[in-house]
Amino acid sequence: MSQFTVSGRFKSRDGYAPFETSIEAENENVAREHTLSQLGSQHGLKRTEIKLDEVSEQ
């Protein structure tokens, strides 16, 4: 498993709030899916309210 850094922004009350998270995943697509799932769960967001800008392997 590799370590990935995922950055982007999600919809909040004041517009869009930036975020950056580090996640361990098998590949880039799995890292994207886990990030969308976690942010959606934590902040009550739909996938369309989360914009992923960059996924990079560390």
From TrEMBL:
<dbReference type="InterPro" id="IPR028877">
    <property type="entry name" value="Ribosomal_eL20"/>
</dbReference>
<feature type="region of interest" description="Disordered">
    <location>
        <begin position="35"/>
        <end position="58"/>
    </location>
</feature>
<dbReference type="GO" id="GO:0070180">
    <property type="term" value="F:large ribosomal subunit rRNA binding"/>
</dbReference>
<protein>
    <recommendedName>
        <fullName>Large ribosomal subunit protein eL20</fullName>
    </recommendedName>
</protein>
<keyword id="KW-0699">rRNA-binding</keyword>
<feature type="domain" description="Large ribosomal subunit protein eL20">
    <location>
        <begin position="1"/>
        <end position="56"/>
    </location>
</feature>
<feature type="compositionally biased region" description="Basic and acidic residues">
    <location>
        <begin position="46"/>
        <end position="58"/>
    </location>
</feature>
<dbReference type="GO" id="GO:1990904">
    <property type="term" value="C:ribonucleoprotein complex"/>
</dbReference>
<comment type="subunit">
    <text>Part of the 50S ribosomal subunit. Binds 23S rRNA.</text>
</comment>
<keyword id="KW-0694">RNA-binding</keyword>
<comment type="similarity">
    <text>Belongs to the eukaryotic ribosomal protein eL20 family.</text>
</comment>
<dbReference type="GO" id="GO:0006412">
    <property type="term" value="P:translation"/>
</dbReference>
<dbReference type="GO" id="GO:0003735">
    <property type="term" value="F:structural constituent of ribosome"/>
</dbReference>
<dbReference type="Pfam" id="PF01775">
    <property type="entry name" value="Ribosomal_L18A"/>
</dbReference>
<keyword id="KW-0689">Ribosomal protein</keyword>
<dbReference type="GO" id="GO:0005840">
    <property type="term" value="C:ribosome"/>
</dbReference>
<keyword id="KW-0687">Ribonucleoprotein</keyword>
<dbReference type="InterPro" id="IPR023573">
    <property type="entry name" value="Ribosomal_eL20_dom"/>
</dbReference>
